[in-house]
């Protein structure tokens, strides 16, 4: 195995581990290294991939990079920031772009070693501002877009290749061809598979546990359930205990369904604690999303510690188990140069301190959702557990926006006017919502305005406009389409003061249950990766609004909004819009990037 690894250098972007996963998808062993590692650490690798990152290559705070890697003779593939790194250090030129390019783009492809087999015109995924404007000596530009003249370049004689676009994401439909071609250049053998990986997971659990028992926080989602089963199989039920905390932020009847599902697969070494009043009291009046996430993460730990005392357990004999996935780590800024997009509840400072002390076991922390599902299938878990939609640990807390005042960008009127001119030909009218949402643009966190589009348009038109709007106007990171009612009185639009109260959460639960009930009725649930139903305190008649956010994705690092049948969308909007207290229903038409999965 050691002689057939491909190394991925992590410069703090959102995609290093996704690249490593894609290499595993091709059956090749991969390994992550820090972007500032030395060439000596990379000896024996078949190839090296330089990943993306939020820095500018010429900036004073850019990550250190051992330029000897580019002259080592080991095949190199640079992606996004890695593309710019190759150009910058080998004598090319990297300039500040005139226009940001986030999302889908059309690229013109020339015949090349790296892009062999791709069409002359391809759809690719971009996420950049800086641009390579001159190739180094010996290189040839082999792809371009209208905005990016050197979208890919290569020097096959030195076995160095690079692309500005992301071939590793599903939004670049034929991107795996480029990775396949690079693997072929490296000569790496294809010996990796899930079946062979599970025994390694068992060994990792035993190593990390160091003879201690594991107290597992079980949400009932796919990740925590697979981890709970892995722990039981690796250590035995006598060394594992699970705790499901009902924090009052669950979906309708969620805790009862979790208990039933776990019991059905023979997992009875766990307890359920109703801590809903405690969580809601702590969250009373809290508006900021990051504060909400940290409160929830800390309370999880407090409840866990109290359960230790109640059971009379010796804390020195136990470590904490979590179903953390790699996207949780990277979005929380958990790698050396990564920008923090949002703090996941399993990455609060207290948890990070425990990880530093070796007090946390996370069996699937290097995997993505689709890989965890494959592990679940191999472990014999039933479909209803393996294929459940993901649901965040903080639950509805990050799907329910809290606000006290109207928040608009300074240039609201001009922004609406400029966007209006852009969408007028499609028969649409824009208006800016008086709230903000979290996004990820150029591998950096943004907290910016949301544009709503009013009028009739097909999904392709809405997607194209959402991409153009967020690329053109930096103040915007999300676009929604007004479904019901077809028109609203913009003069009455305001923010309804809203925090996490039981009454508000109960209304949210009903809206979420209705949307998912209709989804199951039409047998569409298996088509989606996730379906956040977001409550936003935007009021037109004294109530507030719902934004539907159904998603297609394999790994949550990139997502497409789901183009559900219009009749199904209308059925959802009619049902939810009939709930007392709901004034409007929107449909989120933004991909990731630039918008995150959750609004907070």
UniProtKB/TrEMBL annotation:
<dbReference type="InterPro" id="IPR025777">
    <property type="entry name" value="GMPS_ATP_PPase_dom"/>
</dbReference>
<keyword id="KW-0547">Nucleotide-binding</keyword>
<comment type="function">
    <text>Catalyzes the synthesis of GMP from XMP.</text>
</comment>
<dbReference type="InterPro" id="IPR022310">
    <property type="entry name" value="NAD/GMP_synthase"/>
</dbReference>
<dbReference type="GO" id="GO:0003921">
    <property type="term" value="F:GMP synthase activity"/>
</dbReference>
<dbReference type="Pfam" id="PF00117">
    <property type="entry name" value="GATase"/>
</dbReference>
<keyword id="KW-0332">GMP biosynthesis</keyword>
<keyword id="KW-0067">ATP-binding</keyword>
<keyword id="KW-0315">Glutamine amidotransferase</keyword>
<comment type="pathway">
    <text>Purine metabolism; GMP biosynthesis; GMP from XMP (L-Gln route): step 1/1.</text>
</comment>
<dbReference type="GO" id="GO:0005829">
    <property type="term" value="C:cytosol"/>
</dbReference>
<dbReference type="Pfam" id="PF00958">
    <property type="entry name" value="GMP_synt_C"/>
</dbReference>
<dbReference type="InterPro" id="IPR017926">
    <property type="entry name" value="GATASE"/>
</dbReference>
<dbReference type="Pfam" id="PF02540">
    <property type="entry name" value="NAD_synthase"/>
</dbReference>
<keyword id="KW-0436">Ligase</keyword>
<dbReference type="InterPro" id="IPR014729">
    <property type="entry name" value="Rossmann-like_a/b/a_fold"/>
</dbReference>
<dbReference type="InterPro" id="IPR001674">
    <property type="entry name" value="GMP_synth_C"/>
</dbReference>
<feature type="domain" description="GMPS ATP-PPase">
    <location>
        <begin position="192"/>
        <end position="388"/>
    </location>
</feature>
<dbReference type="InterPro" id="IPR029062">
    <property type="entry name" value="Class_I_gatase-like"/>
</dbReference>
<feature type="binding site">
    <location>
        <begin position="219"/>
        <end position="225"/>
    </location>
    <ligand>
        <name>ATP</name>
    </ligand>
</feature>
<protein>
    <recommendedName>
        <fullName>GMP synthase (glutamine-hydrolyzing)</fullName>
        <ecNumber>6.3.5.2</ecNumber>
    </recommendedName>
</protein>
<dbReference type="GO" id="GO:0005524">
    <property type="term" value="F:ATP binding"/>
</dbReference>
<dbReference type="InterPro" id="IPR004739">
    <property type="entry name" value="GMP_synth_GATase"/>
</dbReference>
<keyword id="KW-0658">Purine biosynthesis</keyword>
